[in-house]
Write a structure and sequence with these properties.
The chain is an alpha/beta fold and 214 residues long. The protein has nine helices and nine strands. Helix 8 links the parallel strand 7 and strand 8.
């Protein structure tokens, strides 16, 4: 007997924001290539979504484009960047300067999204006392003394999973408002912070969930 039970819907707003981020990435690429105008049909071909879904996504945030003409790439990019908050400058503290932290530091996407790493922390004996891109690396043990919360908008946490909760708690006490971490575990989120997790196991779960009906 077929299972007729409805499967739960994935949160609509999160999916829209994810797609808006994807559109922005596409527009960055097109702008770098000198493309001036794009249509929803073009976005359908590039990003694998339907034209109607592109238009509905944009309609969630206002009126984009010109009927019969399409979307002017620089203007559309600016509008989406504003929606996502990338029209302002974000000061970042990088907690963990190992492999992942180093990759993030050298990512061109950081500068394109107005993200600037201004402070770096790592464990003593690894890279403490050196500098990355001219930014001194401080000891995580001294984060209360060295981190300047007045300069920091958010933190990117790239430390081993068992250390994530402690780092989040310490950042919360210092007044840091937001953090992104990379670990296959949930954390207790302080009331004064927004904390997001980029966990490959979760992303794979979303992928395999959707592939079941593909």
């Amino acid at each position: 007997m077929a299972n007729t039970k409805k499967r739960p819907r994935i949160d609509k707003k999160n999916l829209i924001i994810r797609r808006m981020s994807t559109y922005l990435r596409t527009l960055d690429h097109l702008q770098n290539k000198g493309v001036k105008v794009i249509s929803s049909a073009d976005l359908e071909k590039i990003d694998g979504v339907t034209q109607s879904l592109v238009r509905r996504d944009f309609a969630e945030f206002g009126s984009f484009g010109v009927r019969g003409v399409g979307y002017h790439v620089p203007e559309l990019r600016e509008q989406i960047a504003r929606v996502l908050g990338f029209d302002r400058h974000w000061k970042v503290a990088l907690i963990g300067a190992g492999g992942l932290g180093s990759v993030l530091m050298h990512s061109a996407s950081f500068k394109e999204r107005n993200l600037e790493v201004v402070q770096i922390f790592d464990h003593a004996g690894v890279s403490v006392g050196t500098s990355i891109e001219g930014i001194p690396v401080h000891d995580i043990a001294n984060i209360e003394q060295e981190l300047d919360a007045s300069r920091i908008d958010l933190a990117i946490i790239a430390v081993p999973p068992p250390e994530v909760q402690s780092v989040i708690d310490r950042l919360s006490q210092l007044g840091v408002r937001g953090a992104l971490y990379f670990a296959s575990r949930p954390v207790r989120v302080p009331e004064n912070m927004v904390v997001l997790n980029m966990d490959i196991t979760v992303e794979l779960g979303v992928l395999t969930y959707q592939l079941q009906d593909f």
